[in-house]
Records
---
Amino acid sequence: MKINHSEIKWHVLFIILVLLLIYPILFSLSTSFKTMSEAFSSPSLIPSAPTLDAYERVFTTIHFAQILSNTFIIATVVTLFKLITGLFAAYAFVFFRFKGKTILYFLLISTIFIPFTVTMIPNYITLSKIGLVDSIFGVALPQLADATGIFLLRQYMKGIPLSLMEVAALEKTSHLTRLRSIVVPLIRPAILSIGIIFFINSWNEYVWPAIIIKSEVNYTLSLALQMFVSSEGGTDVPVTMAVATLTMLLPLGLYSICQKFIIGTFAQSGIKG
């Protein structure tokens, strides 16, 4: 059997990259089971005396159930509205004919490249005027539509045979019925994968919640993590890693289950014109 040395080199490189990527996850998990002294003194990924003290302190120090609920509500609301607005907008760009459609579409897509810092202050001022500062709905409101989702859903919808839509038009079915009965079932894998991406991004978001949320009762998990980090030293490392571990469990689980849909969505979005 002939050994391909070139392939071996690429496999070794790939393994090294994978280890570099998963090391922070393993470090977080390992440190969450260590004592404070061991967390600072031992670089080993295997705790010498595993303990659940850090997790006990998480549940006794902060309102973890409330914070988890806040994060889940925000991520769910943002995901659902992004998908709904994305479906309607993508459907219109694919199946409607109106003047200036192409220009409007490219203007919409161009918003992807606008930095968050440009919209941050106007959004904050608007939310303060309507009384949604320090509210989980204030975190969600500016994120209820997403140009990236519209782009991906449009790419998938363009692969639907026009004959199906023409038959539906001959039967005088409404656009809402066509969207619900024809389009959504055909692009369900894309909807699922894009929804998971939206959910994970919202779940992990830190900057915007940090600007809007003031009281601990409205904190998200990313803000709760910051509670145990001190810029002047004294960081409770095991508890911080315990919060980090709990924070990443759901996103990792969702991605591991649905990774083939996510990868397929981005692969096919680049193929279809």
Note: DSSP finds 14 helices and no strands in the chain.
---
Amino acid sequence: MKIAIVSGKDEGPTKLNAFDNALTDAGIGDVNLIKVSSMLGPNAEIVDLPSLKPGAMVNCVLAEVTSDVEGAEITAAVALAIGEELGCVVETSGIDKNPDDLIDEARQMVEYMMDKRGVEIKDLIVKHSTTRVEKIASAIASVVYVDD
């Protein structure tokens, strides 16, 4: 199983446009995203995001936050843990929460999921996106399933 980890942030004239712009900033704005739950196959391989066919149906775990509160700090984060038997992914987001706290929260959640399953973690990665809202902003972080 191959996966890519991406993040993006941007502003827009509406919440939907801000979200779309953040997806585009992350390189996944021209595809149809299918939100899936949080499991990875054994020994998942992390790769750079390949060129995706416009309009393709693409599975992902997606953290997103959008706000129109001027001056607010928004953060979206994903954490993934890879083991030999399987892997887990979590997502979290927040408004005016310390980004380091959200990163720690994501790390703790994914460690718990792996521990609950009795799977040893070989690799643990957290990716996040943080921005301060000017008018309307969105931040996203995503694990994109690029190959089964």
Note: The CA atoms of residues 3 and 46 lie 5 Å apart.
---
Amino acid sequence: MTFDYAPAPESRASVEIASDYGLFIDGEFSPSASGSSFVTVNPATEESLSSVAEAGSADVDRAVAAARRAYDAVWGPMPGRERAKYLFRIARIIQERSRELAVLESLDNGKPIKESRDVDLPLVAAHFFYHAGWADKLEHAGYGPAPQPLGVAAQVIPWNFPLLMLAWKVAPALACGNTVVVKPAETTPLTALAFADICRQADLPPGVVNILTGAGETGRLLVEHPDVNKVAFTGSTEVGRSIMRTLAGTDKRLTLELGGKAANIVFDDAPIDEAIEGIVNGIFFNQGHVCCAGSRLLVQESVAEDVLERLKARLSTLRLGDPLDKNTDIGAINSAEQLARIDELAKSGQGEGAERWSAPCEIPERGWWFPPTVFTGVTQAHRIAREEIFGPVLSVLTFRTPDEAVQKANNTPYGLSAGIWTEKGSRILWMAQQLRAGVVWANTFNRFDPTSPFGGYKESGFGREGGLHGLGAYLKTEAAR
């Protein structure tokens, strides 16, 4: 039996988007020194949402100077118990404004409202609550008796989880006593600017959090600034390599969370219905705009036909359309540039001989969209099995033995995540030890918690965010001083 869903749009009334936004420096919004700006666009409709200031060299200097003053005079010397109060306050305000922030995220990013509402925003608040609890207990975190903050942190945020990735970086930095200068992605700046307003609402001391909007040049100027002590970047491996070259020979600390090409491995004894949901969540959540997406499905040969049949049936029920509709499963691709990248790689899959199947769905006339797509007949030589697509495209490979599954899963330059589906606990533990991935999920996928560290190996970057390991990225110990 199939069901028809009546439209259930979330109201935009909870959100007021200004016609233009300035830079947030030293507790105040101000225009860029050059007067330059850019327009942020709703990817589902292509409508212009707002004009946003573009930071240049003088603005970066001003923001870093404000962060340094706040670190030296206020935030660095402040007792941890006092910093915790601000973080708790920010967390509570995020909860109070969660509906507004979820709608704003979906408008600016294109992701379904049920994901921004039910996944992103609860995790954003959870990260601030969790790190608030650590602010006065850092001496018990395993980094020595008197760990100290690093100073000023430059944090570059991606466009796929704009507010959540901001929380992953800002919360531990502030808890450890650092001040920050944040550069959100140019296609998704609005929730970062809303966070600036939250900082003022929480009476956070001026200069502790500064937000510079702009494109890649703004990020480069920030990363290269001589008065920055720590750089945290989430984004492409290509840009990550460039940052490493820039910081080589300096004393700046660096963490990188880069691309991925995760294997989601289904054995013949797996609970197939649950695995199907895990496969869907693994690659089609957030339109596949997930670094740790399970974009390579490895299925044991004996159940491959059954899994594919059930997977296609499940994908045929997904609803693509208006991100603000509560029934929507697949939202808009974030930008025309990203859509072109997805389309180019999908065509390469067909050109190299893989069989393409896309879920039947109606594509809206405006906006940027790509249907949930599955490729079969894929080999490890195909581009779609090697390169990160960052879209709703799944490549399916098969295996016969656990050893072959491990070999195929590890045959990638990336090492961010993996998933294992089997009823055997011993197999899960053995596989987890063999897989070269920073995060390994067992009988689930894309589950996150602020207490658990996240990060990768190889071309997926280094360093961890979240948990005790994430605190260490923002602390210097006695041995390092």
Note: The first strand starts at residue 20 and ends at 21.
---
Amino acid sequence: MAKTTVNDIVALCKRRGFIFTGSEIYGGLGGAYDYGPYGVELMRNIRNAWWNAMIYSRDDIEGLDAALITNRLLWKYSGHEGNFSDPLVECKKCGARMRQDKMRDPSKCDNCGSTDLTAPRAYQLMMGLSIGAVSDGEINAYLRPETATTTYTNFKNVLDSRPHKLPFGIAQIGKAFRNEISPRGFVFRMREFEQAEMQYFVNPSDDEKYFDMWKETRMAWWVNVLGIPAEKLRFMPHEKLAHYAKAACDIEYEFPDGFDEVEGIHNRQDFDLGSHTKSQREFKINASVMENRDSTTKLAYSDAQTGDSFIPFVIETAMGVNRAMFAVMLNAYTVEDLGDGKTRTVLKLKPWLAPVKAAVIPLARNVPELQTIANNIENDLRKLGIGRIEMENSGNIGKNYRRHDEIGTPVCITVDHQSMEDGTVTMRHRDSMAQERIKIADVPARVREICGM
């Protein structure tokens, strides 16, 4: 079969209700997408898998959900207001605007090939806001461009309310906004997107150990939880480090156009807490930070045993949730040859990620007894609380199977006339298309087992 393309996923997303173009009836808006009935389920399941790995499976990480709109000073002292920009080049012939670092040839326009280009200039990536009744249209706040900074500014709040010894972390999932010059790659690069980030605070003497630990931990999650084959993932160290970083690498997935970033792991040393802390001169801050005269709080850690007070280093893991979903769908998308010129498209998702966990299908719509049995099974499955359960009443069993293959439903449960006689149903498995006859009473436990929940 042909190699999966981005267009295959785009078509599936529109056809089956995963992702739609934002504001589509008005021509859309670049870099904005709406998530449909199955897209919201898949995104939720990826979020839940990440949250379970970071919070529920550990005792050293706390959760946070910070505001999207933030005081301008956060971004001044984080360095975003002064440094968070891309080099913008404009073609004088056709008017196209491009990021110089993403152009195929920096000397020629990607759109028309002209060499008559402006000199690169900084293009602010943050989305500014004018809030308040007397703001006069001036920017006095920002939509956050990432979740990390609001985590750092809540460091002391979390530590005071849930005391921890080092190392410990704070995790956050939420929306972020960037004024991208050229959104691209479907949901790969957008202006409104979702991040799952964790900031792990460590003693400066332990930073390299925990940087390596989180690299391996996060790679294992991509393989074992999301089901991405190890050979389609790789570590890519940063050739040029950001001004705040001591070390950094990306986890890259092999997209149709080549490997690209899906998650970053960074040793940010003490730059972030050091940038936002009060009384900076009281601490030995390793990173180069801007003098902060506005902070009201010391973002330091006090060691109860030694009595030392210091600024912890930060090991960050930062995943793009939209990119994760895109990679999961690309990896799961399969077209199988059934012979005689027939094919089937199946989304071979890990069962715990599937938007629909099970479909119940009465074989005939006009037989009340079948409908009653199907309704009872549906209700029993919903009581499990494992996710979305669907009832199919189209009456065409083959089309029902194909639809659920495409959206990744692990099992379909068919209620037929034999069900009325012996209390059994047919359970049809997505990947193998194998069918087994089981007792109705055993269906909930079997579905829970298959879904790994």
Note: Residues 66 and 150 are 6 Å apart (CA to CA).
